């Protein structure tokens, strides 16, 4: 489900590599959802959530530094979207994770899928094209 494609490439090498890592984490969540042999997925869900939280904080800070360095005019709105992503994973409903494990993984996957379409393919593409034009 979450497979890197050339259409996701921005042409900013470090960002593309970091996005590939987000795809890899997302793929593990998808594999966990489809693992019918795993009865209790709680610990693995929490590991994925923790990794997503840590990695996105790192990635967003790197990306925002790049946008500042390149005087990107829509930095504030971009940062607001980043902050909303971080909040999503900070506001975890542990009861839902515990008692509705597959539903919670599905929520994560739907959120990540929407993020890829709305943020990477639209917002991130916009800044990469804007910065290239201005260079």
TrEMBL record:
InterPro entries: Haemerythrin_Fe_BS, Hemerythrin, Hemerythrin-like, Hemerythrin-like_sf, Hemerythrin_metal-bd
Listed Gene3D superfamilies: Hemerythrin-like
Domain of life: Bacteria
Keyword Calcium found: no
Residues of the Hemerythrin-like domain: 11-127
Keywords carried by this UniProt record: Iron, Metal-binding
PROSITE patterns per the UniProt record, alphabetical: HEMERYTHRINS
CDD domains cross-referenced by the UniProt entry: Hemerythrin (cd12107)
Stored NCBIfam families: bact_hemeryth, hemeryth_dom
Protein family: Belongs to the hemerythrin family.
Name of the featured protein: Hemerythrin
Species per Swiss-Prot/TrEMBL record: Clostridium punense
């Amino acid at each position: 489900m979450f497979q890197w494609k050339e259409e996701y490439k921005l042409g900013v090498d470090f960002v593309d590599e970091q996005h590939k890592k987000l795809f890899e984490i997302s793929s593990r969540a998808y594999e966990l959802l489809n693992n019918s042999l795993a009865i209790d997925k709680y610990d693995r869900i929490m590991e994925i959530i923790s990794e997503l939280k840590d990695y996105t904080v790192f990635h967003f800070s790197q990306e925002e530094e790049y946008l500042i360095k390149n005087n990107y005019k829509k930095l504030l709105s971009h940062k607001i979207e980043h902050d909303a992503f971080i909040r999503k994973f900070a506001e975890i409903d542990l009861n839902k994770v515990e008692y509705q494990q597959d539903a919670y993984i599905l929520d994560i996957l739907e959120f990540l899928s929407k993020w890829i379409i709305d943020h990477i393919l639209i917002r991130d593409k916009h800044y990469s094209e804007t910065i290239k034009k201005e260079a």
